[in-house]
Amino acid sequence: MFDKLIDIESRYDELTGLLSDPEVIASPEEFRKCAKAQAAIGDIVEAFRAYKDVEGQLDDLKEMLKEESEPEMRDMIVAEQSKLGEALEGLSARLKVLLLPKDPHDEKNVIVEVRGGTGGEEAALFAGDLFRMYTRYAEMKRWRVEVLSANYTDIGGIKEVVFLIEGQGAYSRLKFESGVHRVQRIPATESGGRIHTSAATVAVLPEAEEVDVEIGPNDVRVDIFCSSGPGGQSVNTTQSAVRVTHVPTGLVVSCQDEKSQHKNKDKAMKVLRARLLEKMQAEAQGEMAQVRKNQVGSGDRSERIRTYNFPQGRVSDHRIGLTLHKIDSIMLGDLDEVIEALITTHQAELLKASS
């Protein structure tokens, strides 16, 4: 591990020098490339230097202990050694986590799809609650949210919504949200006060750039049609809605939120690229001996990952056995405690697999 850390530190110093080179400064593209490469290893170098500093302090204390004969001073030195020893163990553990293989999509924006599942109108209302939960979380992170397509019910539920979240590290924070989310509560339409169980599905896809997924001009069929509002009202008299079909795979994406045909097509293509990238990844992972070993749980969308129990005020993530009695704040976007627990478990599994 330490040979690798020495190489990384050497590369960091090399990049620092390049960022001061007039030729690199004169080339914006090269400067950005070097700055991005340096930022990617900055945390590792910072932790490694802190580790070496603590290690040096421990060596100094060891020498002091050899020369010190006063019992009180020796006790102080031993206490300081113990304190620094714990710090060294913590830095060592942090370095092991920092050296784990990075998901190449972690820094990407995400396309999130939320759909009402079993449970009829109540499932659609819950899908709307999940949509608001994720948008509020994004607002807390100062990320940008853009709705790409939405299909609402007459009483304010959501049959399906697809939205883009733009922000640094969005995929790394939200990628474990894919799956079936179950809700247990008394629906507003329930007169008998009975608790109903319904569900919504969530899919989180890294936004795919054109360089990630190549779509040939003959691979796509574009159909134009008139859009309509909720319940079939507000029928658009101009043909602005767009349906994009990827001929080789049969994937279909429709978008009608914008009045501009061009904007609807751009949004539909964003979703199509993300779905194609996910399909490519799933096929590649299917060829591996242990499918999705690097995910918390199986990651299968058919898997129930979380239950939101309103009468008991609790949220339970079934993959890691976590239960929090703070459903109100979670539904308002306070997701960090759940997300941090999922990331910690994921890192622990990677460490176990690499040992």
SSE pattern: HHHHEHEEHEEEEEHEEEHH
Principal-axis shape equals: flat
- Please report the total strand number as a whole number: 11
Head-to-tail CA distance between termini: 12 Å
- Class inferred from helices and paired strands: alpha+beta
Radius of gyration: 26 Å
Low-confidence spans: pLDDT under 50, at least 5 residues? 230-236, 287-302
Give the number of helices: 9
- What would you call the quaternary organization? single chain
What proportion strand?
15-25%
Mean pLDDT: 85
Main sheet specs: 8 strands, mixed
Major β-sheet strand ordering:
2-3-1-5-4-9-10-11
Portion in helices: 40-55%
Helices, strands, pairings?
Blueprint: H1 2-18, H2 22-25, H3 28-67, H4 71-98, E1 110-116, H5 120-140, E2 144-152, E3 158-166, H6 170-174, E4 179-185, E5 196-206, E6 220-225, E7 241-246, E8 251-255, H7 261-286, E9 304-309, E10 314-317, E11 322-324, H8 327-331, H9 336-354
Parallel strand pairs: 4-9
Antiparallel strand pairs: 1-3, 1-5, 2-3, 4-5, 6-7, 7-8, 9-10, 10-11
Helix pairs in contact: 1-3, 3-4
